[in-house]
Amino acid sequence: VFLFKFINRPTVFQPLINEILIEYLNKFIIVYINDVLICSNNITKYKLYIYLIFKKL
């Protein structure tokens, strides 16, 4: 059972985060509902990607 005010949270979050991270979307991040997946080949790039995402948010 969901409270009425929580029903549309994922449908609001998904487009918002897509709009904010559009320049990185499908380059090194994938956004799905409430998850942001960061893809990288090595730890140095991974740290850079995390920095860029946090800076953007």
Report the count of strand segments: 2
Helix content: 40-55%
Number of domains: 1
Question: Which parts are unreliable, with pLDDT below 50 for 5 consecutive residues or more?
Answer: none
Rg, alpha carbons: 14 Å
Strand order of the largest sheet: 1-2
Task: Walk me through what this model shows.
With 57 residues, this protein is an alpha+beta fold. It has one domain. Helices cover 46% and strands 14% of the residues. The protein is built from two helices and two strands; from the N terminus they run αββα. The protein has a two-stranded antiparallel sheet with strand order 1-2. Strand 1 and strand 2 form a beta hairpin. This is Reverse transcriptase domain-containing protein. InterPro entries: DNA/RNA_pol_sf (IPR043502), Rev_trsase/Diguanyl_cyclase (IPR043128). It comes from Aspergillus ibericus CBS 121593.
Provide a compact summary of the structure:
The chain has 2 helices and 2 strands.
Please tag this protein with its features.
2 helices; 57 residues; Rev_trsase/Diguanyl_cyclase; DNA/RNA_pol_sf; two-stranded antiparallel ribbon; alpha+beta; single chain; Reverse transcriptase domain-containing protein
Question: What is the topological layout?
Answer:
Layout: H1 9-20, E1 29-32, E2 35-38, H2 43-56
Antiparallel strand pairs: 1-2
